[in-house]
Write a structure and sequence with these properties.
Helices cover 70% and strands 0% of the residues. The protein is mainly alpha-helical. The chain folds into 2 domains: 233 residues, no CATH class; 245 residues, no CATH class. Helix 22 runs antiparallel to helix 23. The longest helix is centred in the C-terminal third of the chain and has 33 residues. It is globular, with a radius of gyration of 25 Å. About 1% of the residues have low confidence.
């Protein structure tokens, strides 16, 4: 009943593995890993196998870390919608009323959601076996690395399924899952790099300590999720389109959103109890006061608390103890906005389609530009205020740490990078919301585009600088990093001599030209996307349902 005769598992496997998307994803995944091995293959015509070749070790490390990062990013996309999908399809109560036990439901959902990811991981074994004859890595290290990868993916899947049981929308479950998983994934990358020169010790920890910790986390999350399905607090949630925020605030544990007080009213203004002004935009007023928080503030409260807990040690180390690492704290703020920003804009138009109200909205006297800027500004206001909560410690450091006084232009540049990132993520999310029909599809494509824009140029530049730094193509790859705010914050913004000790290359102490190019690129991209959306709305049949 739990594995072989589990109808939930059988149904989910049929839905997930028999789609054309599954075969395309497998092809793209294998092609990407194969290209990495092909271009990073050692160029020496003769290898000295008596000593561990450095290129071979770099290749294997890059192969596994690349797989680890990809699997960490894909695990929530497969598992975060397992239970929220039932709530959105209004089949949650029927599932709970079936003779299946909660443990069978949770296990079936979890195994089915991770089976596709497991296929991708095991399908990469033939590629990594090609690297073993190069030396530098033993078969036992490869098997241990795959064990650690599988254990990590199962843990991330358990976290995502647990988050899915707490929320009513897949978008909320997805962003909280990413917020919890990314720090753990970063710890895994740091562990792999820190113990790179201690192969036996790393092998021992991967085989013994890591599975024990992961097993304890998975058991605790599995038991908690089963308990929520056995005594569900949200039965009947399919019929509740709006949550009573006052009642939710009385039952909330921890942080409570007071919408009529500062600073909460900056991102969650209270519901209107009077008439709107004649010049007010009704779309913006409806979105910011009712629509965004119609399903409650649980996701918002969790995001604020988790982000603040993670920011405290980073803030203390990067801003006050070691000010030369201030760009890395800015990178954390950018990652936070990458996760949170699209959530409030990716459903702006798709939610109208799902409720079948978009055609009615298009027939009103509200102009397309008013509709677009109302929905954009509502989502941008929430995401930017939440992001700026993490940025105020930098401004406080300018007052408390004298070192920043000579770097005020760099601080202003950091603020500009964060604001541009807020705008770019919101505009991309709204653009995907205009193009797609479902909020879940819009959110996933938005995340994919943001990763392609912000992270892929960094990965390509790291790959080029590691394996063929002398090639002319490496220079063009580095120029493509102008699209990434991470590269702009860490490399392009110059710091004075006292704070540049972190950089080993004296030629990469900052480049205002690259910073200006990033600003122009971001503004140009956002203008192009806005113009495209206005054009689509002016031809209303292209966006109507």
């Amino acid at each position: 009943m739990y594995i072989f005769e589990n109808p939930v598992l059988q149904r989910e496997l049929l839905v997930n593995l028999r789609t054309g998307r599954a075969f395309v994803l497998l092809l793209l995944y294998q092609a990407l890993l194969a290209l990495v091995v092909y271009f990073a293959w050692p160029r020496e015509t003769r290898l000295d196998l008596s000593a561990p070749p450095e290129d071979a070790q770099k290749l294997v490390d890059l192969f596994f870390l690349g797989q680890y990062v990809l699997a960490s990013l894909m695990a929530p996309s497969f598992a975060a919608g397992t239970i929220t999908g039932e709530k959105e399809r209004k089949s949650y109560e029927m599932l709970l009323a079936s003779p299946l036990r909660p443990a069978a439901i949770v296990l079936g959902k979890m195994v089915a959601s991770l089976s596709h990811l497991a296929i991708l991981i095991f399908a990469s074994l033939p590629i990594v076996m090609l690297c073993l004859p190069l030396g530098g890595v033993s078969l036992y290290e490869v098997l241990a690395a795959y064990l650690g990868l599988i254990v990590s993916v199962v843990t991330f899947g358990a976290i995502s399924v647990a988050c899915s049981s707490y929320f009513k929308r897949t978008s909320a479950s997805l962003v909280v899952s990413y917020l919890l998983i990314l720090p753990l994934a970063l710890l895994g990358v740091l562990f792999w790099y820190t113990f790179a020169g201690m192969g036996e010790f790393r092998l021992l920890l991967t085989v013994t300590v890591l599975p024990g910790i992961a097993l304890a986390i998975c058991i605790a999350l599995f038991a908690n999720t089963c308990a929520r399905l056995l005594h569900p607090p949200d039965v009947g949630s399919e019929g509740k389109e709006v949550v009573d925020l006052e009642e939710e605030a009385q039952q909330a544990v921890g942080l409570v959103i007071q919408r009529d007080q500062f600073p909460d009213r900056l991102f969650a203004p209270a519901k209107r109890d009077d008439l709107m002004e004649d010049s007010a935009n009704p779309v913006y007023d409806k979105e910011i006061r009712s629509e965004i928080f119609s399903q409650g503030t649980l996701m918002l409260r969790l995001v604020i608390q988790v982000s603040m807990v993670l920011a405290i040690p980073l803030m203390a180390f990067c801003l006050y103890i070691m000010p030369q690492y201030a760009p890395w704290y800015i990178s954390y703020v950018i990652v936070f906005n990458m996760l949170v920003g699209p959530v409030f804009s990716a459903g702006s138009v798709t939610s109208e389609r799902e409720r079948e109200t978009l055609d009615l909205l298009l027939t009103t006297i509200i102009t397309p530009w008013q509709i677009l800027w109302g929905k954009l500004l509502a989502g941008l206001r929430v995401s930017s205020v939440l992001t700026l909560f993490l940025l105020w410690p930098l401004l406080l450091a300018c007052v408390m740490v004298m070192t920043y006084w000579s770097n005020l232009p760099a601080v202003a540049a950091y603020v500009g990078i964060v604001l541009l990132t807020c705008l770019t993520t919101a505009v991309l999310a709204l653009f995907c919301s205009v193009l797609f029909r479902k909020t879940s599809h819009s959110l996933m494509i938005t995340y994919l585009l943001i990763i392609l824009l912000f992270c892929v140029p960094l990965a390509a530049n790291f790959f080029a600088q590691t394996f063929f730094p002398q090639e002319a193509a490496s220079r063009f790859v580095e120029m493509a990093c102008v699209a990434s705010p991470f590269y702009t914050a860490i490399v392009s913004v110059p710091l004075d001599a006292e704070l540049t000790t972190v950089y080993e290359d004296p030629q990469r102490l900052g480049n205002w030209g690259m910073y200006l190019a990033h600003v122009l690129f971001s503004l140009g991209l956002n203008s192009l996307l806005l113009a495209s959306m206005v054009w689509l709305f002016n031809r209303r049949w292209r966006v109507s349902g």
